[in-house]
Amino acid sequence: APGLPLVRVDRIQLQQVLINLLVNGMEAMATLRDRERVLIARTKRDRSDRVLVAIEDAGIGIAPEDAKRLFMAFHTTKPDGLGMGLSICRSIIEAHGGRVWASPNTGPGMTFQFTISADAPRNRASASGH
User: Fold this and answer.
1) Can you say how many angstroms the Cα of residue 53 is from the centroid of all Cα atoms in its chain?
2) What are the structural domains of the chain?
3) For the whole model, what pTM was predicted?
């Protein structure tokens, strides 16, 4: 996007994070019948000169008791989920020197956000070819 610094990341891993967050947002809205389904992806430079990515959905949201465990391995709110997607996202973002979090929207749904430094180191395994 214009105005954003280039980031050094493993492209495949970052794509995995984005796909996971987008699919989660679509799944959170799959059963909606009473309102419009809205999925928004935004990018910007934050105050610390990092790239901030936000994925916002208008889905069913997350129960407060699940919010603290969202990024834990094997925690799922889906009947057919394994509970690994958000845990893997967190591992990838943290391996790139970033941070990932989720927050409820003021209206329906959730927003998942992550940051990556413009000078983020590439994942060690990817950089070494393993």
Assistant:
1) 8
2) 11-119 (3.30.565.10)
3) 0.82
